[in-house]
Amino acid sequence: GDSVTQMEGPVTLSEEAFLTINCTYTATGYPSLFWYVQYPGEGLQLLLKATKADDKGSNKGFEATYRKETTSFHLEKGSVQVSDSAVYFCALSDTGSSNTGKLIFGQGTTLQVKP
Amino acid sequence: DGGITQSPKYLFRKEGQNVTLSCEQNLNHDAMYWYRQDPGQGLRLIYYSQIVNDFQKGDIAEGYSVSREKKESFPLTVTSAQKNPTAFYLCASRMDRGISGANVLTFGAGSRLTVL
To answer: How far is the alpha carbon of A70 from chain B, nearest alpha carbon, in Å?
Structure first.
């Protein structure tokens, strides 16, 4: 079945460092891809999304490009801040005829940014 | 403001008791979902509902039950049959398919259940 694999954390960076969190997926169709962020004790918030190959999603300085050839959707940010400390989830959504909207999540990557 | 309200935020129960987690949305979304989150794991789908009075099992439905009597409400009952119920439970909703951006889920703040 469809699946998502993220790099294991925690990822610890100093403020203003460059961030990459790797995400690869396996899917039979043409899924939409998402990054969600979860701050401590809260639910998930959509960070960005891409619905087709070569699309680039971006938000709040984060970006990710839908790479069909490598089945990847890596999250990047040029300069992280302490406030970016959170858990980041990569996810894919079924876009088949049933279109249930179910999301399949990776295991999450914890990011810790130190001042 | 539109959103999803989950209650209670924290819940403690003794082993063998059924508990019901509330999920209410005022977004006029058609579909609703329940996910379970365990430490170091991703989210796993318990149940989902695309329309009132209809719902389907997700990947880990055993030991859980749901109802969808109203569009805005999708309560989850954790029964005594659930062998390891201690977890963080997240409710989400989505506008019906066919609308631009329809695959985006909006999440509530979650309910943390601890079974003693």
So the answer is: 22
